[in-house]
Design a protein that fits this description.
Length: 330
């Protein structure tokens, strides 16, 4: 929704990962954070907006008994569409370049990303690349070592640490700058969010089956939006704190099946941070991984191609070398 960007330090974000010129360059861990204490400059506009948003979502819960089945189904469709705009789009495609997508698929994912309203694709991917390259340091936008609340939502309520901005400006983002879909969405982001995140979810049930505007606004609109946001944030918070580390015990990200279920497959986080180029983000195929199933379907239909995968030999060698002993083969 709202996000802390270097363009405007008083806004807030969603984020996290990496490529530039090569995998080694993108994911090197040479950065060492300093002893300076992270600043805690509150962004009151974001605090007020997040409070109002979650209050509106709670009211949406109260309205559920008054909503038609069609409206509830529509809210679920909007949630799925917006989730894929983040997971299959901003994350696996544009942040990690884990597969290649055709122009129509990129347009579809960009529209879903605007409905998700978690910052435009360019900023989301940039911050995500910073998150992977400098994970759990002051340069990490949602550094989980600062606690669950900070990693989940608190990072959106304070100004970015200067290291996040500095490191983000140094990343090579030529691929994002060259993508016409990414740049078009960036130029028209505010209008696309107004239409896709708020007006369409509200107006479709009102126009097509006579739902009240209030129910349309608070359920497919605010409640759905808030649920999508919190599902994404759980990857930054819970999946960096709770779970085992079968692939690399030296890093914070964990395997968290509950987060994988709620975030369309993004909770197998120890695997993902160990093999960030893998389009499936886990060894388990489509199990608890709706996004992987979607990408597989797009490949089958010819709308996507070249999904990258970690080989079984590479995975086994890494498990033996750095795993915590809790490995279960997919």
């Amino acid at each position: 929704m709202i996000q802390n960007t270097d363009r405007h330090p008083n806004t807030a974000a969603s984020a996290a990962m990496a490529p530039s010129t090569s995998e080694d360059d993108v994911f090197d861990d040479s950065y060492k954070e300093t002893d300076k204490k992270p600043p805690r400059i509150l962004v009151w506009r974001n605090i007020v907006m997040m409070s109002l948003l979650h209050g509106g979502a709670l009211y949406g819960l109260i309205l559920i008994p008054h909503a038609s089945a069609g409206t509830l189904l529509w809210a679920a469709v909007c949630h799925l569409f917006s989730a894929l705009g983040v997971t299959a789009g901003a994350h696996r495609l544009w942040s990690h370049r884990a597969y290649k997508a055709s122009f129509p698929l990129r347009v579809f994912l960009a529209l879903g990303n605007s409905m998700a309203f978690q910052n435009d694709i360019y900023e989301w991917a940039r911050d995500h690349r910073v998150h992977h390259k400098y994970s759990e340091t002051d340069a990490d936008p949602h550094n989980a070592t600062r606690g669950f609340f900070f990693a989940h939502i608190g990072w959106l309520l304070v100004r970015k640490h200067p290291d996040v901005i500095e490191k983000g400006r140094k990343l090579e983002l030529a691929d994002l700058k060259a993508d016409e879909v990414v740049q078009f969405q960036r130029r028209h982001y505010k209008l696309s969010v107004l239409i896709l995140c708020f007006l369409i979810p509200m107006l479709v049930p009102w126009y097509f089956w006579g739902e009240s505007l209030a129910v349309g606004y608070f359920i497919p609109g605010l409640l759905r939006y808030t649920m999508t946001l919190n599902a994404t944030w759980l990857v930054n918070s819970a999946a960096h704190i709770w779970g085992n580390r079968p692939y690399d015990k030296s890093i914070n990200p964990r395997e968290n099946a509950l987060v994988a279920f709620s975030a369309a497959g993004e909770g197998f986080h120890n695997y993902h941070h160990t093999f960030p180029f893998d389009y499936a983000t886990s060894e388990f195929g489509c199990r608890l991984n709706l996004t992987t199933a979607f990408i597989d379907l797009m490949c089958f239909l010819g709308l996507a191609k070249d999904p990258k995968r970690a080989s079984k030999e590479v995975i086994a060698a890494r498990v033996q070398r750095t795993g915590d002993g809790n490995y279960k083969s997919g």
